[in-house]
Amino acid sequence: MPDKAHGIANFEDKIIDGRKIAAYIESSLKEKVDYLKNSGIIPCIYVILIGNDPASVIYVKNKENAANRCGIMSKKIIIPVNISESELLNKINELNNDSLVHGILVQLPIPLHIDENKIMEAISPDKDVDGFHPFNEGKIFTGNSSFYPCTPFGIIKMLDYSNIELKGKNVVIIGQSIIVGKPLSIMLMNRNATVSVLNIHTKNIKCWTKMADVLISATGKAHLIDESFVKDGCVVIDVGIAKLNGKICGDVNFDSVIQKVSKITPVPGGVGPVTVAVLMENTVNAALQFLTNS
Ligand code: NAD
Question: Cα separation of 78 and 63, whole Å?
Answer without folding.
Answer: 14
